[in-house]
Amino acid sequence: MKRKARRALSRLPYALLGLVFALTGCRDSGRSSITEKPELFKTYPYGDPDPVPIFVRPGDADEHARLYPYFAFNGFSKTAVEKAWTVVRLENPYLSVGVLPQVGGKVWGAFDVSDGRPFLYTNRVMKFREVGLRGPWTSGGIELNFGIMGHTPSTASPVDYVLLPNEDGGVSCVVGNLDLPSRTFWSVEVNLPRDAAFFRTRSRWFNPTPFRQSYYCWMTAALPAADDLEFLAPGRFWIEHDYGRPLDTWPVDAQGRDLSKYRHNAFSPSKSYFTLGELADASGAYSRASDRGFGHWARYDDMPGRKIWIWDLSRAGAIWENLLTDADGQYVEPQYGRLLNQSDHDFLTPGRTDRWSELWFPYGRLGGPMVKASPWAVLTAERTADHLKMGVYALRAIDDDLTVTSGASEIFRTRVAIKPSAVFRTSVAMPDGRSAYGVRLGANKLVYASDPAGDDLSRPFAFRPDDESTTEGLFLAADRCHKERRYNEALEKYIACAARDPRHVRALTRAAEIYVRRGQEERAIALARKALESAMYDPDANSVFAVASRRLGRLVDAKEALGWAARSLEQRSNAYTLMAEIALLEGDAGLAIEYAGRAIGADGDNLNARDVLATSLRLLNDPGRASDVLKRILRTDPLHHLARFERYLIDPTPASLRDFQSMIRGEFPGEIYQELAHYYIRLGLADEAVALLSLSPESPTVSARLAYLTRVSSPAVSASHLEKALALSPRLVFPFREEDIPVFAWAIRERPSDWKPKYYLALILWSKGRLDEASELL
Q1: Helix or strand or coil: residue 605?
Q2: Quick one: DSSP state of residue 266?
Q3: What average pLDDT score do residues 362-380 get?
Q4: Cα 64 from Cα 70, distance rounded (Å)
Q5: Are strands 398-406 and 409-418 parallel, antiparallel or unpaired?
Q6: Contact of 103 with 88, CB cutoff 8 Å
Q7: Which of 8, 30, 177, 548 could be bridged to 521 by S-S, CB 3.0 to 4.6 A?
Q8: Pairing of strands 125-127, 33-44
């Protein structure tokens, strides 16, 4: 009976769904709630994972190599089945928000409880099609994209998640994942306050590695398409994905078309409009026929990137409606990014945590589109010949003055007292001859100035390829490749740049960093030495020299160089963390605590430093203080698996073990165990690494690492692990960490007649650009 009820619920019209939410949710209770349960969806599944490494697929090998060790999927069904998917629902009296942790952690959809209608496009079928970087993708909601350009590798896969009640009465679902190529961790908290008509996403991205990692993040929302839809995208210019097309004017282009109107885009092909040139925090869309809108708010410095995606309005675009949904119609995508264009990438520097917050909300019944929004309210304002018609849609409870000014004069004041999702509308007589005006709610809850040029930017916007005829242009071209994970191209260009200018410290340092990534530490040290000969105190060159030296066991050199790197604000926290790790490796937990404290003082978000602090306290038999540090870590990052494993080491009970293992729910749980094990291996804590890997799902890479870790202490145990590694199937096994190069090199020496360790080592070398060495093994 329950199965039939869920099936019926999934097929209800939106208005009736809203009625169900209103009757069964939190509307009368005045609080937030969060639930997790399986719900049946009509599903067009995907499958057929490709056992061939992704970098040898047909097409651009370097493009595919950026995704290794992920594999692609080749099978997409034309026939639907009913399948249960885990749905997390967050509800308060005003909104109902769904999250799909098994589908990339995306926000499935969001409903305005007052009328039961979605303000995000809510696709009621899972119709996976070959759109994403690995193939499968499905439309709707808000997609979370971290890593490199394209739909993120985990967009259709399970991610880790945890449900949290908040002290303020709100609720949160935190979703997150390990990005395998970069070995960075991202998470997004979907937060619904108890007393607001918006939900919030709080994003967090942490780079625990000693390398610069590719930085790209866009939040891709979806809205129902409508002929009268208006895009409220601030900006004076727009540009497409690539840099071949110059800036055009926005919203009216050079041909006189108002591109902000959906119906004016009835010309080929599908559209990508990146709008820029205006300092604004709010954007969205509005339909006059329904008098309903969608809004997004974030500080401009947090999310300066704004994009509108529109499928071709001809049949060429309409076919995607059939491909991606059954009955929910066409959609458009307002997208929000950390950079201005999706062809742009930056670096997430070593040890750095990046975080930002965004608000998502509906509004309506105001008689016009929003002109301004804030975390408190949405404002509409329309000027006629002698009146100003205004409307306020409350996102939080408001009890404050609304004032209108013209010049230095206040011409209107009234008290506005409304609850969230309620509306206040008024009309104000405007003095003759005065055109510009200002509106203010409270002291600073919302401030609007009507001057259309008031937020215009005068800075240059230069989107173009780099001129490699100059040395600096060649370096910038290499830098761009580096940021896009095109490491082979980047290395070639850095080396060419250093050939033109042998004292080009940045090119030498970046090339050295790539060599460390490739597991070629001696080459890295040779280049870092050249950089230090020109700039002895350069923090980046010292940092790379230190990382390579540590990998080779030259700890004295590593410590000395890290001391110089720590003089730099950018490198300081990471350098002190690495010094703390070396101190622990050398058995000095007290010194490790000192350096970890310095690292935390330089950057309180550096979870590597807090990890080392907690481990050091545990090793000094101070479980109380260690537990306090772990609590702090989990408040910051509720999906920090290492903190839960450290709690298990302090209190090795079945309950603490379940608490650790139950939170690892993503597509590749074994990779989480291996990534955590490498933390202990770096610290010389082999027992902890072995204990951790012994809990991991079986894989050849796990067993090979266990064999390597126990090769001296327990040769018989090591031999058993190695036999298991070689007996397990290599299907979909794609080792990629440079730290595993010595593991498989040792395995080859131990089993020279077996092809599997050679194959695994060749995969790592191939993925690192060491093609000749890989070819020799194969």
Answers
A1: coil
A2: -
A3: 97
A4: 10
A5: antiparallel
A6: no
A7: 548
A8: parallel
Measured distance CA(760)–CA(744) in Å, rounded: 7
Residue with tokens 């280049």: 527
CA angle 331, 335, 337 (to 5 degrees): 165
Task: Give the CA dihedral 701, 702, 704, 706, nearest 10 degrees.
Answer: 160
635, with CB counted inside 10 A (0-12, 13-18, 19+), is: exposed
In the structure encoding, which two tokens stand for residue 773, read together?
A: 């060495």
For residue 55, the model assigns a pLDDT of: 80
Segment 511-538 mean pLDDT: 98
pLDDT value, residue 60: 61
Residue 210: burial class (beta carbons within 10 Å; 0-12, 13-18, 19+): buried
The conformational region for residue 356 under phi > 0 = left, psi -120 to 50 = alpha, else beta, is: beta
Query: What is the DSSP secondary structure assignment for residue 56, as one 8-state letter?
Result: G
718-743 tens-digit pLDDT: 999 999 999 999 999 999 999 999 99
Banded pLDDT at 28 (limits 50, 70, 90): very low
Q: Directed axis angle between helix 607-619 and helix 641-650, to 10°?
A: 10
**Could you give the CA distance from residue 227 to residue 283 in angstroms, rounded to a whole number?**
19
> The tokens of 693 are what?
């890997």
Mean pLDDT value of segment 547-557? 98
The Cα 7–Cα 415 span in angstroms is: 47
What is the spatial distance between Cα 447 and Cα 708, in angstroms, rounded to a whole number? 63
Dump the DSSP string for 291-339.
TEEEEEE--TTT--EEEEEE--SSHHHHHHHHHH-SSS--EEEEEEESS
* Alpha-carbon distances, residue 573 vs 197, 595, 596, 597 (angstroms): 39, 9, 9, 10
- Whether the predicted pLDDT of 500 surpasses 50: yes
Q: Is the pLDDT of residue 14 over 70?
A: no
Residue with tokens 């610069």: 212
pLDDT the model gives residue 30: 66
**Measured on CA atoms in the order 121, 125, 126, 127, is the torsion positive or negative?**
negative
Tell me the average pLDDT across 323-330.
96
User: To which H or E segment does residue 493 belong?
Assistant: helix 487-500
The closest of 239, 261, 232 to 334, measured between CA atoms, is 232
pLDDT of residue 20: 41
Per residue in 155-171, pLDDT (tens digit) is 999 999 999 999 999 99
Q: How far is CA 228 from CA 224, 231, 293, 330, 369, in A?
A: 11, 10, 12, 14, 12
Q: Taking a C-beta distance cutoff of 8 angstroms, is the pair 573, 562 a contact? A: no
CA distance 401 to 416: 6
Edge to edge, what strands does the sheet with 377-383 contain? 372-373, 377-383, 387-394, 423-429
Q: Is the pLDDT of residue 507 over 50?
A: yes
- Asked if the model's pLDDT at residue 29 lies above 80, the reply is no
Structure tokens that stand for 235 in this block:
């900006």
Helix (H, G, I), strand (E, B) or coil at 108: strand
CA distance 339 to 346: 8
Name the phi and psi angles at 354, rounded to 5: -110, 140
Beta-strand (E) ranges in 407-540?
409-418, 423-429, 438-441, 446-449
Evaluate the CA torsion angle 568, 573, 576, 581 in order and state its sign.
Answer: negative
Mean pLDDT estimate for the chain: 94
Q: Burial level of 556, CB count in 10 A (0-12/13-18/19+)?
A: exposed
Which one has a higher pLDDT value, 524 or 14?
524
Q: Which residues contact 8 (CB under 8 A, 6 or more apart)?
A: none
pLDDT in tens, 401-433: 999 998 888 999 999 999 999 999 999 998 766
